[in-house]
Design a protein that fits this description.
The complex is a heterodimer of chains A (about 425) and B (about 170). Chain A has 16 helices and 17 strands. With about 425 residues, chain A is of the alpha/beta class. By secondary structure, chain B is an alpha+beta fold. In chain B, helix 4 crosses helix 8 and helix 5 packs antiparallel against helix 8. The chains are: A alpha/beta (about 425), B alpha+beta (about 170). The interface between A and B is medium-sized, with 34 and 28 residues.
Chain lengths: ~425, ~170
């Protein structure tokens, strides 16, 4: 966390924030909605919903094509969203901000273009044992295509992934380190600046999966020292179907296109086609226009609130949740690394996560149960699944109480 | 949101229907949780959504009788109870009867038929088994949990068909 985010001005007016999210007013099974699954997908503020409605209802036309007013306004709004995201992550140039359909596509893009061009048999890609499947499987496909190898950094029992563990695995054959900025299961915040130094020390690149990091941490891609940063819009209070690949300009220049089509070309003849410069080079076809504009609105929304106070609020929720959950007999917290983000997994004796999630749902409490798209991590932890409560800017201490009460109710049913 | 309001709220009837005593009993104390000795077939069932896995082993005689049937795996109360009840219901039955019971359980869980109706489609000797397995029909009110109840049965069908893997996603 940087200085700007530690200088929180409390108290944080969570009621005011909640009023901005229409869905939070609804009930589920006759109970007030207690939404504790924002790490899977966050709810959307009215600003995002209204912006998408306006993009379709008032300003819509295809982008980068028509020489008419509506196409110009649509293009301007689309490109304005790119600038909002550039500023949000402090990228050096608009050329470095690529719209994708999500973090998964962004990682696949890097694997398919940079990976297939620059990696060869014998090269090594370093991952951690805690990665999401979306940051494992694209590299396995690359491994099968070019013959490189995957090396796995272990996770400590408390969920920590320290720099020493990386030092043991990163070596002269390492060409890429691809890790989560923040673990989606454990909440662990990785020491990314130190990892960047280690990676660059052996001439490797660093890709950060920022799906949780962009939500919970202040992200300055230049200060982090990474080479690629990817995230999804829908976890950042924005729409689905939109995500971001940020990469250093020189990497994007050297990478071949991902997909061919309209918008990504300079000139096309049957003999030879030349590419448009980034970002257009990586945005073939009509892009998710309203989704990009909606993500821009999500960034506007986050810029309009006191993010330092919001971050302090999330950490307070996490501390309260960890302390309250620990008092439930037979409950074990999974992921207790120092400085972790507001994501808490746990297991409970005699109560499978799936049964817990079903029973909690009847109390209006939404949690994630399962392997969280991180089956290798489940194997390391020695569990088949966990239950996860994740906290966002709109959650309250009373919702933590509701979670705990619903868990005790579940124990009554199951034990 | 008031936590006390939730604490005092009664359990909904559909939760009681889902977690009946017989389900909780088999879920906590599963029968035949082991590997069949000298098994003639084995198959693993996976539920990719939750990561649950169940491995069914069986010994089928030359005449097509399920001499022994057991399972191993990790899962929720519903899937473990279903596997446990399946192993009790089908021991000593023919493979053909197992297929009939699979269809019956599938209909019970998806709401296609009630216990009385599925009884007409299986041998009369399985009437008591149907009465027990009818407890699984509580999943009807919980669509995402239907796969939990049917997972071991899919694994058994794969096992008897000579396949080694199955998934609830097919």
């Amino acid at each position: 966390m940087n200085k700007a985010m530690t200088a929180a001005q409390l108290p944080f007016d969570v009621a005011k924030i909640r009023a901005d999210f229409p869905i939070l007013a609804r009930e589920v099974h006759g109970k007030p909605l207690v939404y504790l699954d924002s790490a899977a997908s966050a709810q959307k503020p009215k600003l995002v919903l209204d912006t998408i409605a306006r993009a379709y209802g008032h300003d819509y036309a295809n982008v980068h094509r028509g020489a008419y007013y509506l196409s110009e306004t649509s293009t301007a709004a689309y490109e304005a969203a790119r600038e909002k995201i550039r500023a949000f992550i402090n990228a050096g140039s608009l050329k470095e901000v690529i719209f994708t359909k999500g973090a998964t596509e962004a990682i696949n893009l890097v694997a398919a273009t940079w990976g297939r061009t620059f990696l060869k048999a014998g090269d090594e890609i370093v991952l951690t044992a805690a990665e999401h499947h979306s940051n494992i499987v694209p590299w396995q496909l690359l491994r099968d295509a070019v013959g490189c190898e995957l090396k796995i950094v272990p996770v400590a029992p408390d969920g920590s992934i320290g720099i020493e563990a990386f030092a043991n695995v990163i070596g002269p054959k390492t060409k890429l380190v691809a890790v989560a900025h923040v673990s989606n299961v454990l909440g662990t915040v990785l020491p990314v600046q130190a990892i960047a130094e280690l990676a660059h020390g052996v001439g490797a690149k660093l890709l950060l999966d920022g799906c949780q990091g962009i939500v919970h941490e202040h992200v300055d891609v230049r200060a982090l020292g990474c080479d690629f940063y990817v995230f999804s819009g829908h976890k950042l209070y924005g729409p689905t179907g939109i995500g971001i690949l940020w990469a250093r300009a020189e990497l994007l220049e050297a990478m071949p296109p991902y997909q061919g089509g309209g918008d990504m070309i300079d000139t096309v003849t049957f003999a030879k086609t030349t590419w448009a410069p980034p970002p257009a080079k990586f945005e073939a076809g009509t892009p998710p226009i309203a989704e990009a504009i909606g993500l821009g609105a999500a960034v506007d929304y986050l810029n309009s609130i006191d993010r330092a106070a919001a971050s302090a609020h999330e950490h307070a929720l996490l501390r309260y949740a960890m302390s309250s959950l620990s008092q439930i007999p037979g409950l074990r917290l999974i992921g207790t690394a120092p400085g972790k983000a507001a994501v808490q997994s746990f297991v409970m004796d005699g109560a499978h996560p799936h049964d817990l999630a079903t029973i909690l749902d009847r109390s209006g409490v939404c949690v994630r149960a399962g392997h969280h798209c991180a089956q290798p991590l489940m194997d390391v932890l020695g569990v088949s699944a966990t239950t996860r409560a994740s906290f966002a800017i709109y959650n309250t201490m009373a919702e933590v109480d509701a979670l705990v009460a619903a868990l005790r109710k579940a124990q009554e049913v199951l034990l | 949101v008031s936590a006390s309001a939730i604490q005092t709220a009664p359990l909904t009837d559909d939760l009681r229907t889902l977690y009946q005593d017989i389900i909780l009993d088999h879920g906590k104390s599963p029968r035949n949780l082991r590997v069949v000795e000298h098994h003639t077939c084995k198959a693993q069932g996976n539920n990719p959504m939750c990561g649950d896995r169940v491995t069914v082993t069986a010994r089928v005689s030359d005449t097509g009788v399920l001499e022994d049937l057991a399972f191993e795996g990790k899962g929720c109360a519903i899937s473990i109870a279903s596997a446990s009840m399946m192993s009790e219901a089908l021991a000593g039955q023919s493979a053909a009867t197992a297929k009939q019971l699979f269809d019956a359980v599938h209909d019970l869980c998806t709401g296609k038929a009630d216990a009385d109706k599925v009884k007409t489609a299986v041998p009369a000797t399985l009437g008591d088994s149907i009465d027990k397995l009818a407890a699984l029909s509580g999943v009807r009110q919980f669509p995402v949990r239907v796969k939990c109840a049917t997972l071991p049965w899919h694994a058994l069908m794969s096992c008897l068909d000579g396949k080694t893997q199955t998934t609830t996603e097919k």
